[in-house]
Amino acid sequence: xxxxxxxxxxPLRRSHRSWSAxxxxxxxxxxxxxxxxxxxxVSSAFNVGDPQQFPVxxxxxxxxxxxxxxxxxxxxxxxxxxxxxxxxxxxxxxxSWTLCRTEIPGRKLLDLLIAIPYPLGPLVGALAWHQLGSxxxxxxxxxxxxxxxxxxxxxxxxxLTAITIITALFEAPVAIIMIGAAMQRMDPSxxxxxxxxxxxxxxxxxxxxxxxxxxxxxxxxxxxFVSMGGAxxxxxxxxxxxxxxxxxxxxxxLFQGFPPRYPLAAAMGVVLVTIALVALWLHGFILxxxxxxxxxxxxxxxxxxxxxxxxKGILIAMLWLYVVVAVILPIGTLLLAALQPSSDISFYxxxxxxxxxxxxxxxxxxxxxxxANSLILAACTGAIGAIAATxxxxxxxxxxxxxxxxxxxxxxxxxxxxxxIFAVGFLWTILLLPLPIYNTLAALLLxxxxxxxxxxxxxxxxxxxxxxxxxEEASRVSGAGWLTMFRTIxxxxxxxxxxxxxxxxxxxxxREVSASVFLSGPDSQVLGPAILSFWDSGGMxxxxxxxxxxxxxxxxxxxxxxxxxxxxxxxMTN
Amino acid sequence: MNANANSKFGEAFIxxxxxxxxxxxxxxxxxxxxxVAAGEHLSLLGPSGCGKSTLLRCIAGxxxxxxxxxxxxxxxxxxxxxxxxxxxxxxxxxxVFQSYAIWPHMSVCDNVAYGLRVKGVxxxxxxxxxxxxxxxxxxxxxxxxxxxxxSGGQQQxxxxxxxxxxxxxxxxxxxxxxxxxxxxxxxxxEELKELQSKLKLCTVYVTHDQEEAMAMSDRIIIMxxxxxxxxxxxxDIYARPRTRFVADFIGASNIAEGTLKxxxxxxxxxxxxxxxxxxxxxxxxxxxRVGEPCEVAVRRIFxxxxxxxxxxxxxxxxxxxxxxxxxxxxxEYVVEYPGGEFHVQATPLVALNQGDRLFVHVPPExxxxxxxxxREN
Amino acid sequence: xxxTRRQFLKGSAGVLVAAPAILSSVRSYATPDVLAGAGIDYxxxxxxxxxxxxxxxxxxxxxEYVKIFTDKTGIPVQPSRLATGAALPKLKAELQTGNVSxxxxxxxxxxxxxxxxxxxxLLKYETPALSNYPKExxxxxxxxxxxxxxxxxxxxxxxxxxxxxxxPKLWEDLLDPRWRKQIGVQVVSAGSQYAWWYNLKDVVAxxxxxxxxxxxxxxxxxxxxxxxxxxxGSLKIGGKVSIFQYTKAVRAKTPLKIVLPxxxxxxxxxxxxxxxxxxxxxxxKAFVHYLLSQEGQQGWNNIQxxxxxxxxxxxxxLPSLAETRILVPKDFSDYRSAKRHKxxxxxxxxxxxx
Lengths: 574, 377, 354
Hints:
- The complex is a heterotrimer.
- Chain A is mainly alpha-helical.
- Chain A folds into two domains: 20-40 and 353-574, Orthogonal Bundle (MetI-like fold); 61-338, MetI-like fold, CATH 1.10.3720.10.
- Chain A has 25 helices and two strands.
- Chain B contains eight helices and 21 strands.
- Chain B has a six-stranded mixed sheet with strand order 7-8-9-3-10-11, sandwiched between helices. In chain B, strands 2-1-4-5-6 form a five-stranded antiparallel sheet, with helices on one face.
- By secondary structure, chain B is of the alpha+beta class.
- Classes of the chains: A mainly alpha, B alpha+beta, C alpha/beta.
- Chains in contact: A-B, A-C.
């Protein structure tokens, strides 16, 4: 039958339509981890019996009727989401266009600085801006009063407007990166032909560049919309004074009640998820068929426009204004507050002390543990997430199994879950299942890996796609078996990409607060909830010190990301 | 249709039998058979999408065919019937990729020595072999440089050296020169040809450039839509294209369409809109029958232009120059004659102008009868 | 192997395994003075490991107090801060999974605690100190829970921003329009806030609460946070502060004044009790014993600045228990009832605009 020399290798006639296990297994796992929490959430939302009864026995729509009593929560959320998104997109368009397409001095520095606000996190931003802009005690208002002698305040960070603006400021970098990436992939001759035909700078930018960027802009916009709908830290800290509640902070409050009002919280969660899913569907519909991941296309060298004054000056000023407002002022303020011995701010360095840092980092057990836990959790999330994302990207882009597209979609679904909502459903899931991971870091780890999977996948797919298959084929033809090929070719080439994904996940994990505030327990304290709880207890100096420590950790990871990305770019240019 | 090894070279080293393969959802190789002898250089020539790359990758083991057999060095490496499929790393073939696939994270030496190191050859020996291979392509001074230092042409040479270092018995090349600019390509072609004659490796070379194929091959297979359109030596194919496709692909041709008026074993007469074109018959097996529509191919370099009519010639007609294009080494005229148009390439010494009246003569031995009947395979 | 040899091997293996335990238990600790009469096995208390304490008080205070306890008794403590509203579902969840991580629960919601007692979730521990506590400051069946400080909730203001003349003197003064948006209260989940409402509702008119809601008070998670704003001037009146905030302010020489209206000031009991399912009963008892002793009460209340239920404890900055009119719950089953809690939630959500 078989020849004497026959060597069975890969299976024959691999039908290109079959579903391989490499697709089915991840799909099943993802489905389970997404559907079960959602199911728990939905079932609790319809619970009209005992609020704490799991599984739910009595169903009804009363909770949704009660939601109608609190439309102001939904209204606030939608205002922040929509206006914030518009603002953030506007900022992002201006900044990414200026950075990618024009020649301005200090571009590299600006590039680095503008990447900072997002990993720094909304918590840091909220604390800082509360310190800067609260009506009575805010530094900016004090300065204003001192300068002008007036009794009123310049800004009030406790208003819905301020919350929207600050949220937009700290979410904008994501859009900047997404839109910037699209700009870099655009064929410059499209703009050049406009110039040849007489189109001026502004006309070209508005009639050619902008419409071409529309898919990326829409993509970024919808991502931001969902993300801001789930904003928690900024409304929690800034909204308290004026009693402004959004869905996420309301859910948090409902959880604190006695007894906790799970069904109403779940109903609010369902409303939010529905809005997010509609947005996600809309996104997919508008982009029809295009994938989320930033892939393929040649990387052009975009021509850089030389601007003239006053446009150049205005744009540079706007960029630096953003950096000041989103990076320099917040970090500076918190640093200043952290160095104070008391809640009063003194600008005289002689009064400053590092006692607060010592206290939160070493003396105080809760925060010490929180810092350590956060580091461990972040490192593990990064490792597991990067490996999972690599495997998934491999299956989606390299295998020929059917269902790859579905797997990619499934990987991106966690984007639609505001973190608070997912955490709530996840919490109930792990309480109900016989897994003893409640109150451990493992619960947080699992939730984080799922929540950040879209981000990790996006990061790794760029790397995987750029890795030309011929590099591996050359190895195999040269006689290397699968394992050798993997070891000598695939892993080294993917290495820097995996590292940058790891560091990205590390940053995001450290700054996460909305999910961890629900899932962390007394034995699994992490930075986000620790900062919030510290904030609750009062004492700006110590809270600021803790926030600064978080900021430093994140910034170090950011440096690693940028170093790894620049290295991988060198390796890939062939 | 079989394209068997040229007997001059001896036994077939690579044999492909009745191979069918797909790329994505499309069948791109249909029931194709060929063989290549040890030491023979075979080129697979054809337009993009004709299946030549897929065929090559099937031989390499990088693609799985749907049906058929592949035998290398008398050992079956693929058989649909017997469910054999040897993975590429065990087929002992060498391959040069279109993108060169030089590993950016290794040095030149590591790249070239890879195939030997994988087989367990000691580092020092492998380095020696790598050095020898690099000498063959003139890149030995780059041996310790990082691969990212190389330009396109240099990468191409290193890719070649890498495939030669393990002293393979056969080498597969997938459009290796197509990413180079014209001048570099011409130089590389020369060098490759030299290397070829020195090493006498069994070679399968995929290209879409007919000049390359003709310059380097012992035998050419022209592929179209997954099948073999024609095979033969370069001169054979050039002089005796069997179909319009081949005639168009190789060299620059005029194609005259007409009706067959008479035919015997070696000659035919075709009525081209009233003009009687005497031509040669290439392969009687494919010849049409009298009264059927057919085509005649005349290479552009062959029609002769004269101011005077000569009395003893067939295929001579009065003509008018309708356009003239100066191409540097060659001037191309379009002349109108009673049967239609001829494109004629002449040296710049023939100084004619648009509107000139003259006589055009096509020597019958340079006019090829082409069949328009559907090909059997 | 013959049976004798097997027995011998088993026996010697058993001795080897037991040796460390035997050796360690041979080394016995002397019970420290402060735990004399506690009725516990001190050695067991030490080996049971750290006492896991849940509390909702100010972290620095608890940490300081716990250190004293550990210094005096050699028993370590692992404190975790939890808002009362978060603690209960956690406890319930842990009981469900059978993995209880709390031994001693210090809770500012005495009604909740009594509920736990009724559900049989508390351990009865009768420390001799109980005789020093009047009956309204311990469980009806003594030993389940005892008040370890009285959380009195007066109004407060900073004289730098509010003059004594204009400051409120009565509860009804809070409804003055000048205090609109300038009153601070605690969130609905704060145990002491419930007690405050419960005890105050009997001395004010029913319209008081709607009036208070119209003042749009700001809600705070902790009184500490509220006090920060009072001291910085961004909040004029702390509608309900904890009396220990006052003590701390006095010690820090902050110009803070509290208002104890003649109608009475609501107070709640902050109670301590041991969870029955605790795997560390001896250590837990040691903790409670010390906390309720005169020394422990003096220590704790001095650190925090609150009123003790024991009459033999005096905090210099505060008036004594006898001198102040305090409103505490009388009918515990009513105080505890879900009906009242729901009523509170409805009223309070309106007050804080939730």
